[in-house]
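ARCHIVE RECORD
Type: protein–small molecule complex
Small molecule: alpha-D-galactopyranose
Source of inputs: curated submission
Record status: active
Notes field left blank by submitter.
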Amino acid sequence: MKLFVFFFFIGLFSIWAKAEEVVAIDTDNSSLIYTINHSNQLIFCYYGQKIDDKEAFSLIESYNKVDTNRDLSYEAYPTYGLGFSNEPALTIIHESGALITELEVSEIRTISKDSLINHIVILLKDRVYNFEIELHLEAYKKEDVINQWIVAHNYESKAIRIGNIYSSFLHFYADKYYLMHFTGSWANEMNLVEEELRSGKKVIESKKGVRTTQTENPSFILSLNHSAEENEGECYGGALAWSGNYRIIFEKDEWNHLNVLSGVNPFLSEYTLKTGEQLETPKMIFSYSSRGLGQLSRNFHNWGRKYALVDGFSPRPIVLNSWEGTYFDFNEKKLTRMMNNAAKIGVEMFVLDDGWFGNKYPRNSDSAGLGDWETNEKKLPHGIDYLIDYAHSKGLKFGIWIEPEMVNPKSVLAEKHPEWIVQSPGREKITLRNQLLLDLTNPEVQDFIYNTIDSLLTVNAGISYLKWDANRHVEQVGSTYLPNDQQMHFWVDYTKGLYNIYRKIRSKYPELIMQVCASGGGRIDFGSLKYHQEFWTSDNTDPLKRLFIQYGVNLIYPPVATASHVSASPNHQTGRITPLKFRFDVAMTGRLGMELQPDHLEEQEVEFAKSAIKTYKKYIRPLITEGDLYRIVSPYDENKWVALMYVSKDKSQAILFAFSTGVHARDVYPILKLNGLNPTRKYKIEEINRINTSSFWGNEKVFSGEFLINNGMEIRISRLFDSAVFKLTEVTK
Ligand code: GLA
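STRUCTURE (tokenized, with ligand):
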């Protein structure tokens, strides 16, 4: 009965018509399809498994609006004013006070089309005002990734104000929707949550301005009808390439359709576009997988390494970072001793963390010195140069920590330039970790930061690695630089200011290795990764916690960029005691490094570290850099085992990691089914990084891929923090 009423209703007020034109963009395995209807509107039709028969979409009847009632056609970029009662992607306030925007297709342009990338732009114009947007779609064919973004142009004779301008809109229709997203806090980032979406809106966002990924990452995975599985089923992933405020809205509407908007957060962010000006949104990166989460992650990792990360497919050096080893308490002797030890165990890069700067206000704790980027003469009387030369003499490269967006009130910089600090007129400035934020919307501040880094890198020419930290977020927003009527530009202009600096540094120092860090995992997004080789995943270095954090991070972001350090036991953040082998085995699943005082290692621990690092360099690093990740057992499964495997692209090599994260009944072991190998080939299995007898009865033997995939390997790890690593090598004879 309901159905009848519904069609009757529509029949009365509307005209159904065939689409005029199909606009489609494909990757090797996915299609995103729009149609243009008789009213020249761009209609969202489909995103999913590749469909070659595009013609069929032109037969879909779409509703021509002659009345304001809702229909079942969803605009590809919904605006406010065309009967779309859901959250619109775009809202504009015209000088006349008009609030309505109606977009129609004016042109479709192909920007590039080759065997790797297709890039099209659909121009959409307002029917009444001289306002236009470019809707960009860029398909990365081999990686099954599509980027979407918007460029808005104001050709009116007066300024317009933009309320919302999301980067993308996606639309789904299924019985049920399951959303995975990543949530957390400092030292507890990227916890995976999966929830079924109910009616109304689920919002993922940040309003922090800086460290925007610490509590919630701007990425998600969506599965239709069932919750996501590792090796099968359709799922979709999205990640916004933006390091500022973001908002992703999942709106399950009254017809049970799901609308997904992703982009810059409109929170206090109205943006004025003067005549002739344009505004480009960040890119939203999507991927589709018909083979579960595993394939989805591999799509993101392949795309990330090829197109988003700096030197995505190059091996990363093994780092000893001074932070947890010394904190602020060091001098030349202590550092050079650390370097001696680092070199002995095979580390390749020494990174001097916080505490090396400030003289009037020495940086001996986190309460002073930030902003005064000259070497502390008391701690380091011979300068950074001396340390660099020393590192080089030991065969180590040298890196340094900097937190250039910040200032302590106790600093020469704060005394000299109080106007550079983010502040709200008349209010007391609230510190966080005793520090305040510099106003990156101000080009003078951008120049100061660029010049600080430029002179650090030119005066000390041997610095080959920069750890860029940011340890607070925005509160009491306000800029002495921006005009009063543009204070709301702060959030967008801050991030653009940051990107300007990154860009300048990158173009002058293309070889420099840069790590993005913001109190640990506060800036893990594809916007900042474009300028960096790696990210500091979390200030939590507890290996058990890291198995969870890195599982979450690597669902989207590439393992090669995932800095993962062996630290002391008991762990400084959690107090947990773990064996050195377990700490190494976990850290070796990402970009291996160390973060401890090597002097505190016992002799047999030094020997173990030496051999673990050698093993990592020879067998593990190449696969983490260039191979594919296959997750075997998730830490989120209740069974308290974790396993994952890296497989070379040609499937001739693999490294398997297995961990026991709980206490198990006697003689109960995990059986790991090694999906990811080639079933028709044979592999020799060798346990590496071993201390005792092998934990696999078939060690050194040859097995078929078929056996390992279907029967699996039973591994004898069952005590708390047992772990094992295996090398699998194809045997051709
Ligand atoms: C942040 C970083 C740490 C360390 C400290 C130094 O917390 O995430 O790795 O660099 O700052 O103050």
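CURATOR ANNOTATION: The longest helix spans residues 603-626.
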